[in-house]
Amino acid sequence: MNAIVATGVRRDFDGRNVLDGLDLAVDDGEFVALLGRSGTGKSTLLRILGGLDPAYEGDVLVSERRAVVFQEPRLIPWQRVLPNVSLGLSPARAKGGRDGLHTLAVGALAEVGLTDHARAWPVTLSGGEAQRVALARALVREPQLMLLDEPFGALDALTRSRMHVLLRELWTRHQPAVLLVTHDVEEAIVLADRVLVLDRGVITVSAQVTLDRPRDPGSPGFTGLRGRLLAELGVVTAEDGP
Amino acid sequence: MVDLTAPPVTLVRPSVSDRKRTPRFRVPRLARRLTGPILVIVLWQAVCSAHVFTSFELASPVAVIDAGRQLWAEGALQSALAISLQRVVLGLTLGVTAGVTLAVITGLFWVGEDLLDPVIQAARAVPILGLLPLVIIWMGVGELPKEFLVALAVTFPVYLNTHAGIRGVDMKLVEAGQTFGLNRWGLIRKVILPGALPGFLVGLRFALVGCWAIIVVAEEINAQSGLGYLIMQAQTTDRTDIMCLCLAIYAILGIGADAIVRLLERYLLVWRRGFKGA
User: Fold this and answer.
1) A86-100, A168-182, B55-69: which range is least confident on average?
2) pLDDT tens digits, one per residue of A70-102
3) Which domains does chain B show, CATH number per domain?
4) Topology of A2-232 in CATH?
5) Of A74, A78, A141, which has the smallest distance from its Cβ to B271's Cβ?
6) Among A146, A190, A142, A183, which Cα is nearest to A168's?
7) CA A45, CA A43: separation in Å to the nearest integer?
8) Is A137 an interface residue toward B (CB < 8 Å)?
9) In this structure, are residues B229 and B235 in contact, taking their beta carbons and an 8 Å threshold?
10) In terms of CA atoms, which chain A residue is nearest residue B172?
């Protein structure tokens, strides 16, 4: 089964072509990272997959239960952390009604290690904490597909690598399909099973990552793949420079 | 060469303000806020005691308090205050409801905006007191025209600020709400209206000042009761003390109304942690 099947996706903005007949298929439970220079349409693709941009041509099919984590946490400032996690979930449709929903949201907060912050206002959270709440808000929906739009881009390096471990744990436990948009080549290789490169509106590279976990950025396999991907992105590295 | 005999660079304690970090004692906020008005009253009394004006031109605070006592004993002050308050509260309720309803319609629907907003902007440009003769023809001289004028004065500031508040809600939050399954009504209730609340409260503050300005004029021109009527009566009997008393009451009511909105803000906007002033 597939979590994403997109064929011939095209998107123009005022005559400027961004996506040019792109094809993409992601399997159930597969962790895919999407790389691309800025302005290549990574976020545009993610917004289309998330249902936020209906003005595209082509055919797009995605899992019914999906959740998005944006670059900014986008928590509702006037709701405390817990109702932010259960935002948009109806107690009437939840198992066990209102109590069931509460238990579910508390559980999701516990998974990202923020049980103590259930009653905090979003404004009082640090950047990393807010993004963990955003992860919990995605998780609580038990998504078949998680769409992550540079979710760690605004975090410091230390927090970012902690978030990598957390995301990997959550993925192992819940096995959703993940499409992670990022411009960080190392992040892509550390986390994903497959790395894609988006260039001039189509996917130009699809590289399976077969390295053992945990992945050591210093290992020859890692540096080799990184060099190849960087070259695809048009970056000249020190090793293969003139 | 580095000159080793040069005096060392002076070090200072890092601070962006000249103030000492912890003052020895803190004056309570209420006392700080009352100081200004009290100073004004003291100055007012001093000017009167020095006979800068005659007691006919300007009554002293002491004379005003005396007048207040006298009118209270007669029962005239309570009844005037009660009827004016009633008019303001009714007009305010009507105006706030109308302003918020219009803002929601024009804020949420482009059709509403295109159809209604130009009309509201044009109506806003009409001086409300210019409507007075027409309103008397339409509604007579009873309670209705006074409440209507107050409602009108309240509608516009509430409308403008609430509308701006709705339009100012972060599109990113709306998108987040949509992706996480909020339907249209859920978005309005959980994202858009709470987001417009700060704007609404600004409008309410303007409205609370404006509605007293309108009611006093409305009562001076056609009424047999209320604070404005009391002022008009005082004019025919040359009672400056009563005029000053009524004006002082308006001022106190204004402060009170502002305090209520501040309290509302503190309660409703707890989620905001903004700069509160040094």
Assistant:
1) A86-100
2) 999 999 999 999 999 999 888 887 778 889 899
3) 67-268 (1.10.3720.10)
4) Rossmann fold (3.40.50)
5) A78
6) A190
7) 5
8) yes
9) no
10) A74
